Amino acid sequence: MKRRTHPILALLAVLCLGLAFTACGGDEEEPASTPSGSGSGGGESSGNEIQPVAGAETKPVITVGSKNFTEQFILGEIYSQALEAAGFKVKKQLNLGSELIAYKALQGGRVDAYPEYTGTALTSFFDVKTADVPRDAQQAYEDAKAGFAENDITALAPTPFENTYRLGLTKEKAAEIGNPKVISDLASSAADLSVTGFPECKQRQDCLLGVQDSYGLKFGKFVSSEQKYQVLDSGDADVAFIFTTDGDLASGKYVVLDDDKAFFPPYNVTFNVRNETLEALGPDGQKIVEMVQEPLTEKVMQELNARVDVDKEEPEEAAAAYLESAGFVPAS
Amino acid sequence: MADLTHLPVLAQIGDDFFGNREGAAERCPGNNGLCPGWIADNFDQYLSPLWEHVLLSLVPLVIGFVLATTLALLAHRYRFLGPLFLAFVSALFTIPSIAFYLILLNVTGRGFTTAVIVLTAYTQVLIYRNVTTGLQEVPSEMVDVAQGMGLSRRQILFGVELPMALPTIFAGLRIAASSTVGIAGFAFFAGAGGLGAEIFADPTFRGNVVAASVLMIVLAAILELVVLAVQRAFTPWERAVSS
Amino acid sequence: MTFAVLGPFGDAIDFIFERRVSQAGTVEVGGLQEMGELTLTHLELSLAATLIATLIAMPLGAWLGHIGRYQFLAISTSNIGRAVPALGLVVFFIAFLGVGFLNVCVALVLLAIPPIITNTYVGMRGVDPETVDAAKGNGLTGFQVVRQVELPLALPTIMGGIRISLVSVIATATIAPLADVDTLGRPIISPNVYGTAGQLAASIVVAIVTFAADGLFAALQRAVTPSGIKINAGGRPRGRLSFLSTKRSMPST
């Protein structure tokens, strides 16, 4: 008996020591961002602070969902925390899955609301071909709203930011190839460049194939990867398919090329609510949702994504910091 | 409808909201390194998954023990059941865990219950084999003596055979304990959370992987020690004997 | 042919045989060819890892078993190996070594070593000492004793260990796509692309592959069992269990 416990005890002892070291290690790194203190938002805090909505506690529980990536977690948290601050009873069901799973959950009532992108709704739910999606953000919103309405779902007002695809490069690489500003600028050098993106991008009409067709380019090589910024930094690829609100963009190391031929559809976020739940929210609840998303510019969203992806904060913390900074909730 | 680009912005995010991100990708945790400081600061992130993992390990262990022992006792009484049960529990163990979670969730839904069913299934062969072996290895002379003393079958089982088989049984339980902690690492495929979910959420961040993995190893070690302690408590006569 | 009546399982089986458009709408997934390729990669990885692990662990375990010392080491490898979770091990190596076939293979080799080393050791120790003495008495050197007497007698137990390792490696190779190695785990960890049907389909195929491998090794194990020694039905290392009980006995039915 004794012999057999020794390896387990030894392992346990070593691990305990290791944990003790880690705990006593203390902060070696500085935090990448300085969360703002109270009242840093423009305008008096009392002007923006979410006021409790009369009768909110009597309403049924609102289940807020989200898809399965960082930005969606943050948005889900923002909306949930805002509604809670207004007195509603909120349950979170974040990380539902991809858009089809999330939409099915919404239609079926498993969740009462979740944030979706206008472009995604049109192409994935309402059978609009990528090429046919209106490139005007407002029009895309109207079309998506109409589509949702047919399913007894209301798409609330869209966010200022859109999370769409672009092409990005490191500043150094951009300098090497003549400082391109828009995707068309790559036309001459594309054949010598390698581009990276998630694995399926290579076969997608709304990704590599479509870009090459629309812009008349042909990239030299496609490198499939999940960590595109690492690939750009290491030089394994020259250009990458990026998302405009990626946290890594906040570091300022990268150049984002404009979509001058408007190939990519608009992807603004709308908080989509089942009609019964919208009744429960009432006009006051709806106003809160729309108010709380107004400061969400691309730059703010990048910072929020960076806090979670780069600083490894929890989405809940990042959302709370955002709401405080804008004065929607009192500083804790 | 208001033009999207000119929405009235009632609230502003101050400039100090934006951290200085220059070089953030080169230091912890932006560089996805080991970051002990980050682990220490954010340890509370792991507490809830740890608790889920504890439940995911303990519940199947207890249920599995009761179930496997029952099966083994049945097989001990009705010998013909032996090969049948053995084949069944061995087959259960052969099913790859991730596949088992995913297949079962289509039958019993996502969540804790499905994970517990899967994990209980994996404990079976480990415990069942040891219970049967333990019982088989009881010297037949002892059983003869007991019979000679007029003890009933039941009394022999609970008074002689099982107590003698306890060390072997507990050995199987110990193996099942750490095995269950390991397999529970994949329970998030069934929607049951646990430390595996933490690992999978950011597998490139070394600090995260190390923190969650170390917690799993420590949990397995502690669980084994707990079983050992229970064994010592239930078999005081064994303390003098080393194996 | 539509299996729709079977619900999600029907859809999954459909996925195995027919190519379909992905959820996002612009990529094609599924079908026999893709499943075949994924299965092939999965088997390549699993077999490579198990083979390398065997080449490392078997000689080591055999030597330890032959000299009969360092039981502590052989048994501890299993104890520690048991406590280390497969997911943590593989992801740890991917995070610290990087992506690629070789790196994930290293992790899987480490996963596969403990059962093989322990079973080889126990199998060797389980050989009747009188047989060994008789062989030595006949003038065989230590090495010859190992090769001609101990190993063949220990082979069933050793095969049992390799079998345990192989099954465990095949199951764990499911997360190899985290290292950019596209095994059958690819549809499982990328349900966004392959859909829940693809996820389930891959799960079913992995289960089938595992059972096939296990069955094959069970047959191999039976084939190498000399008729003189009876090993109980499961072919698991009886010797190992007897270490854990107070009575040490030869394998018997």
Notes on the structure:
- The complex is a heterotrimer of chains A (332), B (243) and C (253).
- Chain A is an alpha/beta fold.
- Chain A is built from twelve helices and ten strands.
- Chain A has a five-stranded mixed beta sheet. A three-stranded antiparallel beta sheet of chain A has the order 3-10-4. Chain A has a two-stranded parallel ribbon with strand order 1-2.
- In chain A, strand 1 (62-65), helix 3 (70-85) and strand 2 form a beta-alpha-beta unit.
- In chain A, helix 3 packs across helix 10 (275-292) and helix 11 (298-309) runs antiparallel to helix 12 (315-325).
- Chain A is globular, with a radius of gyration of 23 Å.
- Residues 22-45 of chain A have low confidence and may be disordered.
- Chain B has a single domain, classed as MetI-like (MetI-like fold).
- Helix content of chain B is 67%, strand content 0%.
- Chain B is elongated, with a radius of gyration of 26 Å.
- By secondary structure, chain C is mainly α.
- Chain C has a domain at 40-181 and 211-244: MetI-like (MetI-like fold, Orthogonal Bundle).
- In chain C, 72% of the residues lie in helices and 2% in strands.
- Chain C has ten helices and two strands.
- In chain C, strands 1-2 form a two-stranded antiparallel ribbon.
- In chain C, strand 1 and strand 2 form a beta hairpin.
- Chain C is elongated, with a radius of gyration of 22 Å.
SSE topology sketch:
The complex is a heterotrimer of chains A (332), B (243) and C (253).
Chain A: H1 2-25, H2 45-48, E1 62-65, H3 70-85, E2 90-93, H4 99-108, E3 113-117, H5 118-125, H6 137-149, E4 153-155, E5 165-170, H7 171-176, E6 194-197, H8 208-215, E7 221-224, H9 228-234, E8 239-243, E9 254-257, E10 269-274, H10 275-292, H11 298-309, H12 315-325
Parallel strand pairs in A: 1-2, 6-7, 6-8
Antiparallel strand pairs in A: 3-10, 4-10, 5-8, 5-9
Chain B: H1 36-41, H2 47-77, H3 81-94, H4 97-108, H5 112-136, H6 140-148, H7 153-183, H8 195-201, H9 206-234
Helix pairs in contact in B: 2-5, 2-7, 2-8, 3-5, 4-5, 5-7, 6-7, 7-9, 8-9
Chain C: H1 8-17, E1 19-21, E2 28-30, H2 32-67, H3 71-83, H4 86-97, H5 101-125, H6 129-137, H7 142-172, H8 185-189, H9 191-223, H10 238-244
Antiparallel strand pairs in C: 1-2
